């Protein structure tokens, strides 16, 4: 729809935004007007306001996400193995750590440590001497 701004999806309300929502709703603004002003969904504004009226607090509740499968020590071990041997695979790291984790967990720990994945070469890189010999071979057979 033209004229509508794209809303930010899947990001938490900041403490400032929560205070702003509560202030605007306290003054008497409608949920729709507040949502347009803070560029959030009406549902997010309504949930924030309901929490304020019900619990008299606007603080975020702690998440109940999944429990961690690895300890901080195991996390460091994963990163250390990747640093020591850059060609080590995720399955090798998983067996060495000894914890039942999925390969995506290992990748996430490595990316959190700013380590990028290293793909093996499909072909060996050519040395300057190999390039020269290859060029000579091609030129001799070009006619």
UniProtKB/TrEMBL annotation:
GO biological process: DNA integration; DNA transposition
A Gene Ontology cellular-component term: nucleus
Domain Transposase Tc1-like: residue ranges: 75-140
GO molecular function: DNA binding
Source domain of life: Eukaryota
SUPFAM superfamilies named in the record: Homeodomain-like
Subcellular location(s) per record: Nucleus
The protein's name in its UniProt record: Transposable element Tc1 transposase
């Amino acid at each position: 729809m033209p004229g509508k701004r794209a809303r930010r999806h899947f990001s938490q309300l900041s403490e400032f935004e929560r205070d702003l929502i509560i202030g605007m709703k306290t003054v008497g603004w409608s949920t729709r007007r507040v949502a347009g002003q803070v560029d959030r969904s009406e549902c997010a504004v309504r949930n924030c306001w309901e929490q304020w009226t019900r619990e008299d607090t606007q603080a975020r509740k702690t998440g109940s996400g999944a429990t961690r499968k690895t300890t901080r020590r195991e996390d460091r071990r994963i990163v250390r193995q990747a640093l020591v041997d850059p060609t080590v695979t995720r399955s090798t790291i998983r067996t060495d750590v000894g914890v039942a984790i999925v390969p995506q967990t290992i990748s996430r720990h490595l990316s959190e440590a700013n380590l990028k994945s290293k793909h093996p070469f499909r072909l060996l890189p050519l040395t300057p001497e190999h390039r020269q010999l290859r060029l000579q071979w091609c030129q001799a057979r070009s006619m």
